[in-house]
Amino acid sequence: MSENKVPEEMNEKETLRKANRYFFSKVVFNVLLIVIGATLIGLFLRDIQRKTSYYKQQENSELALAEAITTLDRNKEHADDLTKIFHEGNQHVLNDIALVLENGMSETMADSDNSIRSDMLKSLTDRANIDYLFVLSKDSIIVSSPVAELYGVNPAIQGFMTQENINAVLKSTMKDDGTIAPVLVKNTSGIFYFYSKPYMYMDEEYMLVIGKEASVLDDQTEILNDVATVLSRTTVTNNGFMFAVSQEDNLFLYYKNGPEILTGQNALSSGLSENALTDGYSGVETINGQQYYCVSRTFGDQTVICASAKTEEIFDENHFVLFWTVLAFNIIMLLCLTYAVIVRNDFVRHAVKTDRIILKGNTENPTYFDRSIFRKVFPLMLTGIMSMYGISFYTQTLLEVTQGIEKSKTALQEVAGRYEESQGTRKILSDYNEQHALSTAKLLSFILEEDTSFLNAESERYHSTFDEKGTKIYLTDDEGNRLKSIAGSPFLQELCDQNDLTSIYVYDENGHTIATNTDNWFFTLSTQEGDQSYPFRSLLEGKADSLIQEMMVNDLGEESQMIGVAFSYFTTVDEDGDTVYVPRSAFERSAAEYGTVNNTTEDGISRHNALLQIELDKNLSGQLLESTDVGSILSTSMLSGGAIVMFDTTEEHRLVYSPKEASIGRTAAELGVSPNAFNGDDYYGFNRVNGVTYFQYYRYQDGYYIATAIPKTSMYLARRTIATLTAVICFILIVILSLTVTLTNEEEEKLYEAVSSDQAAKSLNSAIFSIVLPSGRRSSTTQAAARWDNRRITWSEKSPEQKLVYMIGMIMLALMIYILFSASRTNNLSQEDTIIRYIVSGNWDKTWNVFALSSCALVLMVTIISIALFRIPVRIITSLLGARGETLGHLLLSVMKYGGTIGAMFYCLYLLGMDATNLLAGVGVLSLVVGLGAQSLIKDILAGIFIVFEGEFRVGDIVTISDFRGTVLDIGLRTTKILGGNGNIKIFNNSEITGVLNMTKEISVASATIDIEYGQDLDYVDAVLARELPLLKEKNPKIVDGPTSLGVSALGASGVSITVIARCTEQNVRAMNRFLNRELLQIFYRNDINVPFPNVTVSQLDPKPRKTLKDLPEESEEKEEDKK
User: Fold this and answer.
1) 960 closest CA partner among 942, 980, 983, 945
2) Which runs of consecutive H residues, i.e. helices, occur in 460-567?
């Protein structure tokens, strides 16, 4: 016999070795399949992400280029406007000088010698802020000039003009169509623009000529037309930049990328292709060995502007998506494969007959498709595919949100750069406009000092005041007469029209208006600090010569910009004693002839301080600065149909700018903007405004909250498509992988049986076992006794489902540790503003959004893992403290489970914007309202929740409730349904379920007790049972182990009780009891073992009287006599 056993053991070992080799090769094949699948899905996603990234980069670059080119065009318009203003302004100066000369100065000059003429023209030149002033005859001779040496000289001979320049000047620079054609002159002193117009001097026609240095204009226009200035501050997404190349010589006009500066170098020599220098080009280019994605646009005639970004920067965000997607794919594939193998091994170990169909009809070694395994694995496959879609969708969402943030930041950086540039441009335009206006004011003051006719006009308007009694008191002028004021002066209006001014005011030395072209003749400069007109008093006090005031609301409540210059007016009295205003020249002649005392000549002409105040035309200023206003600065096309808006810093945060003018002035609350947007930190979030959901990014800057608004519909473009394609590919690969387990042949089945045969011999009463649910579906459950002890269930005892849950838990734990580790190091390892850091920061709105849902998922994972890990120290503590420790351990686990779950639930509600306090209060009020009428309902619902939460029993458990035994069919919120052995269903209200006997376990014990007669040979009975009982297992396949005789269990009134037990499933216990009773009776009948009938003993009473205690001594004496 031993000789036959050796070959059998050798065959078994050989079979095991063969099986191990086979399954090892299969594992290698499956691993290779997973690696190939991961590679394929990685390459597929990489290709899609690259194309998507290129497309978005191209779109963003084109928008950035459009912004840059628009800015360059706008700057060119600014330069052209400034040039036009410069030339028109100088032409106006020329006209004003001509007016000065025509209003008496020419006559004075004619009566004076050359030195006096030169002094007068020099004073006029200084007032007009020009560089050249002279009168030129038709034969190119200077007849009058501030420089006496130039009298009678041809400018060409002096060298500051060429004859060609002189000929152009003699034609007049003001053309018939109103355009101005200044003459550009270059001489040793610099570059100048000359302007001329016909002028009658000494009854002959001459040309009045002025010259202005060109650098005043050229320096400003050069800044405005500088391409480098615009490109250096223009931003491109993904840390990109812009450069410009000349198409004429292929040289970089501007190239600066960090420390790398290539300006002036040949672009083609640096690696740029010729195609990149064409309009509309987009593609990857190599510059000095570094790859860039470039998009090109032409500007002007010979300039190409390229928006470029490093390809590695473009794809940097894709690594996040690829990492998590490929990792998820590998996890799902491994879980599906491992679970399929576990299910197969479990079926083999428990000798489950599976449903197989033949796919290949080879009689010797047919190929089977195991539908039972496939049905078991299919839910996991479906869940895996859905998870793959969800993970891909989620990561794509985070990616597109990140790109939305990047786009928003780029737009705001562009706006910030544009704002700084506009401030510079605005300063250039404003400074020139104000300086030109100041020069105009000084020149007008010269005119008003010489032409006083407008002050001597008739007027019935006199300044007055009232005393304490209400009596009207007239103010007096310098000569003691009533202070007259001229309103609506035609002369002043003509000066306004000629110089593009809104109004002119002339004030006396006390600040009273003495002449104006408006109706505000009564106006007086304020003496209250803070009023708009108060600062101009400093000019009358001699503290300043001029004042340029910013645009502001004046004392009359009107918005205006005023410029003032100090000058003088001169008065005397006529023969009637009335005040007469005289020209400066009259005062100077009188002073020269008679001298002055206290600014008064001997013939009675007095000099007085005065103020000339001009108001600039705000429409003209607005047109000039229109392109630098808020609307122009904040308008953008970089946000895919979105816009930039601006809120003030008031408590209500009113909207001060929006492309939709109807929304301007509304509060943030009215627009549905979250208060978190105005906490001072960078804010991202989704807000619904006017029925449209926008992704918004808020930033505080220069006293305002500036925000981008991107329509949600235009931000999420590719996530559904990419997620769907990823899930489809995952589905195909998972199906292929599952076929490696579900497709088997006869030889493979034998190998499975050989490998798993030793597993079948393990404990029959495992803590985990399979059951058939009332629905007919096969599942696994935990025996009731094992649910509340702290014993760790070994891997071999776990069901396939529990092994799957365990593996998922370990994976989640590893991922959780990684996520928490990454989150804890975000400040050090991540960029300043990453999406992960923002989610962890909690600065987002507490509502339904991707940030809140991500945080909720994080909280739930932490809670679940924490509760699971808490069992480890509890198990250690309970093992050390004995029974008391066991009690404490159960209590701690219960507290942790309830507390952790409830705490996580309420915290998640808080993250989603639900006020847990109000929610509890509402539930309490509702309970009070319905409590009186629905107490039982509420009790049933609460009891149902705790039954499920505590796990007292589960669907499929065998329980006894109130003497009713059956299988749990359904656990609802209000009722629990139990399926009895007779097929009837009993329904219990959850609140009425008490004293539950849970008999759920894999193997239960069925027993039968039968009596034999006293006097029966027990050894014979044991021998019969030893022979007959093993035959019962063959007769009834529901017997898992036994039957076994336990011997004599009791000594009864009629016989000796013998007990026999057999192990079977709990579902079969009652049937097995009946089977054992029947079979034992049959065994005893066949083997002549008598089973006693119930006996009744009948006794007859003795008629003799019963002895008592009194009879006892006599009886003793009789016995002693008998002995003797």
Assistant:
1) 980
2) 490-498, 537-540
User: Residues 6 or more apart from 1045 whose CB is under 8 A from it?
Assistant: 1022, 1025, 1026, 1029, 1058, 1059, 1060
Supply the DSSP symbol for 1110.
G
Instruction: Read off the tokens for 529.
Output: 């600090």
Instruction: Show the DSSP H helices in 690-834 as ranges.
Output: 712-715, 719-742, 746-760, 800-824, 826-829
**Nearest alpha carbon to residue 637 among 659, 663, 665, 660:** 659
DSSP-assigned states of every residue in 922-962: HHHHHHHHHHTT-HHHHHHHHHHHHHHHHTSS-TT-EEEET
Strands 290-299 and 303-310: antiparallel
pLDDT computed for residue 5 by the predictor: 46
Distance between CA atoms of residues 176 and 71, nearest Å: 34
Sheet of 683-689: strands edge to edge?
655-657, 643-647, 704-711, 692-701, 683-689
Residue 6 pLDDT > 50: no
Measured distance CA(415)–CA(484) in Å, rounded: 53
What is the number of residues in the chain? 1124
Q: Which two tokens stand for residue 897?
A: 């489970």
- At 39-73, the pLDDT tens digits run 887 788 788 778 888 888 888 888 888 888 888 88
- CA 944-948-951 angle, to 5 degrees, is 130
What is the CA 824 to chain-centroid distance, rounded? 20
d(CA 234, CA 226): 13
Query: Span 239-314: which CATH code?
Result: 3.30.450.20
Nearest 5°: the CA angle 352, 354, 357 is 165
pLDDT tens per residue across span 854-892: 777 777 777 777 777 777 777 676 666 655 555 566 667
- pTM value? 0.62
Residue 454 burial (CB < 10 Å; 0-12/13-18/19+)?
Answer: buried
For residues 879 and 872, is the Cβ–Cβ distance under 8 A?
Answer: no
| Residue 791, pLDDT score | 56
Residue 456's identity, in one-letter code, is N
Axis crossing angle, helix 850-911 with helix 800-824, rounded to the nearest 10: 100
Closest CA to 943 of 978, 896, 988: 988
CATH class for the domain made up of 455-488+501-616: alpha beta
Q: Which strands form 743-745's sheet, in the order they lie side by side?
A: 356-360, 367-370, 743-745
Q: Other C-beta atoms within 10 Å of 922: how many? A: 11
**Main-chain phi, psi angles of 148, to 5 degrees:** -60, -30
Closest by CA position to 486, among listed 512, 506, 514 = 514
Fold of 629-715: Beta-Lactamase (3.30.450)
- Fold of the 1004-1086 domain: Alpha-Beta Plaits (3.30.70)
CA distance 296 to 420: 25
Distance CA 100, CA 106 (A): 8
Distance CA 1026, CA 531 (A): 122
Q: Tell me what pLDDT residue 114 has.
A: 74
